Amino acid sequence: MTTTIPLSITVDGEQRDLDVDPRTTLLDALRERLAVTTPKKGCDHGQCGACTVLVDGRRVLSCLTLAVAKDGADVVTANGLAPDGGSHPVTEAFLANDAFQCGYCTPGQVCSAVGAIDEARRGMPSAATADLAGDDVVLDRAEIAERMSGNLCRCAAYVNIVTAVEEAASR
Predict the structure, then answer these.
(1) Other C-beta atoms within 10 Å of 137: how many?
(2) Is 164 exposed, middle or buried (0-12, 13-18, 19+ CB in 10 A)?
(3) Structural domain count, the chain
(4) Which of 115, 135, 152, 167 has fewest C-beta within 10 Å?
(5) pLDDT tens, 59-106?
(6) CATH at 125
């Protein structure tokens, strides 16, 4: 006997209500139950970052997150970053810098970049942050590469991805 649990989340600005099996991941709830296919199922083990979304403003691997744990949360996918129908500055930077090839990892890369830029602006250090005691995090290429290291690209567009994040962060 499978028991379902009611869940209410906001996805890309739209309130969504559904009943899910308590074992359902946020990724599967988005893709299979809500037809939000922007986050991709890459490895389904939290190793590739293709499923990265923003939950309450923080980057999350949706394949490792139980949907029921995010009841009441605000989930933003790459499609929801610019709700007015335009393009988000990170998306524009990815396009301008040819920071994708096949495009499969791009939605997760873009969400991760948005989260990484926000973390740096809030002074959150990473393993590459030079001054851990300071309040300022400089998003240089090493810092960006470290912060984006959880997002893999099979096409190896890393140089252009770092350039795109660097450009977007400077705006």
Answers:
(1) 21
(2) buried
(3) 2
(4) 135
(5) 999 999 999 999 999 999 999 999 787 899 999 999 999 999 999 999
(6) 1.10.150.120
